[in-house]
Amino acid sequence: MHRFANPARFLRLSAALRPWALGVALLTLLGGLWLALFDSPPDYQQGETVRIMYIHVPAAWMATMVYATMAVASAVGLVWKHPVAELYTKAAAPLGAGFTALCLASGSLWGQPMWGTWWVWDARLTSVLILFFIYLGYIVLVSAFDDQQRGLKAGAVLTLVGAVNLPIIKFSVDWWNTLHQPASVMKLGGSSLDPSILWPLLVMAVAFTALFVWLVLLRTETEIAERRIRALRLATAMAARGGDAPALGHPVG
């Protein structure tokens, strides 16, 4: 981890990984959509509406997975003062919020014909909605400080506190009586889904993951570039006033 505290090393790794991530994302997204729309059968109860699952379920997985990586990166940033971990968290938050919004929207579209309502204050749905608000809270909090470093630290604390919601999301269907169905893909004893449904779902999950990797690498590179620009502007302003530029606290190149 410490090797990539130097943004220059991270940028080299990111430049090597981004084309592969984009290629995997495009191939699996096209393949997954074809399997989901044309190859997989309709459900015997839900009919064609079951195809919403191929968007909803991977989006739900990504919503929690992205937040889990943000929590780990926040801990690394706070404990080891890892600058790239801090910038990764900032870069990942809007993407995680987007996946969560997609999860909620697709869930409403799926729930209306199945449950007869667009929304219920179900334990799973409510905890995912709280996750969405935590994402938004992080984005607003980080931007609320003039000093970016203070904003990143405050955001890291919020992320770690909000991580308590992840096990609630995961086990809400087991702890409470909810309309939401229990786990059917990843559970003890193996998946209960037929392979004709399971494989398109897994391919779409890979597509969403690869798309996230590509986007978050791109956004993290942008955050590093913006930090360098701010540092150069500060150094130029201090030099113009005849003073010495203050220490930046973290390496920027």
From TrEMBL:
Main subcellular localisation: membrane
Domain Cytochrome c assembly protein: 27-180
Transmembrane segments: 20-38, 58-80, 92-111, 123-145, 157-177, 197-218
Record keywords: Cell inner membrane, Cell membrane, Cytochrome c-type biogenesis, Membrane, Transmembrane, Transmembrane helix, Transport
Pfam families attached to this UniProt entry: Cytochrom_C_asm (PF01578)
InterPro entries hit by this protein: Cyt_c_assembly, Cyt_c_biogenesis_CcmC, Cyt_c_biogenesis_CcsA/CcmC
Compartments, as annotated in UniProt: Cell inner membrane; Membrane
Topology of this chain in the membrane: Multi-pass membrane protein
Highest rank taxon of the organism: Bacteria
PANTHER family assigned to the protein according to its UniProt record, in alphabetical order: CYTOCHROME B_B6 PROTEIN-RELATED, HEME EXPORTER PROTEIN C
Function recorded in the entry: Required for the export of heme to the periplasm for the biogenesis of c-type cytochromes.
Family label: Belongs to the CcmC/CycZ/HelC family.
Name this polypeptide is given: Heme exporter protein C
Lineage of producing organism: Bacteria, Pseudomonadati, Pseudomonadota, Alphaproteobacteria, Rhodospirillales
Gene that this sequence comes from: ccmC
